[in-house]
Amino acid sequence: MNAAPQLVLIDTNCLVRAYFSPLRPILGRPVAGYELKTLNGLAAELKNLAKRPDLAWLSDQVIVNEVDAATVTLTKAQRQAIDQDALEIQKVGNAALYEDYRDRKLKVRRALTLADSKALAACLELNAALSTDEWPLRLVSEMYDYDNGDSVRLFSSVELIALLEHEGLINRETRIRTYAD
């Protein structure tokens, strides 16, 4: 009997990158032992991005329907736990990001959004992996472990697209073109 695929929550920026490929559907399908999904809040961010002229193509009904169908269904208890944990993650994460900004003398100070914090909280609650290219979210994610002590599993959009190629869902040329876009 095959094991259930591990859930991977894909954040907004990785969704945009993945949708540069012609592959449809991307979300909701098993890929190399993972099931690719997103959160309602991240789906809403994607729809807001589609209002921008340069990203209007994200309002394509095929993409909208796919994103809507591949949002994780959470119980009330899970939503409450995620909402509560996200506030603490945002507080702790932003303190760590401030230290990083100060210590490395960065020119731009970055902070976690509530949506970013909820994405990480959901990964911890659901024992899911996280696909993000946001370096502040990746940095903060490295501070957390699942209940079993394992580090949060992170994917970049490059790794996500490589999984799609590995599974034969896209070819090498499509992968290269997707990266270039």
Fill in the keyword field for this structure:
181 residues; alpha/beta; five-stranded mixed β-sheet; 9% strand; globular
Question: Can you give me a brief rundown of this structure?
Answer:
The protein is of the alpha/beta class and 181 residues long.
Q: Percent of residues in beta strands?
A: 5-15%
Rg, Cα atoms, Å: 16 Å
Low-confidence runs = none
Question: What is the strand arrangement across the widest sheet?
Answer: 2-3-1-4-5
Main sheet, how many strands, which sense, barrel? 5 strands, mixed
Based on DSSP secondary structure assignment, what is the total number of beta strands? 5
Mean pLDDT: 93
Order of helices and strands: EHEEHHHHEHEHH
From the spread of the alpha carbons, the general shape counts as: globular
Helix fraction, binned, reads 40-55%
What structural category characterises the helix and strand content? alpha/beta
**Roughly how many Å apart are the termini?**
39 Å
Count of DSSP-assigned helices: 8
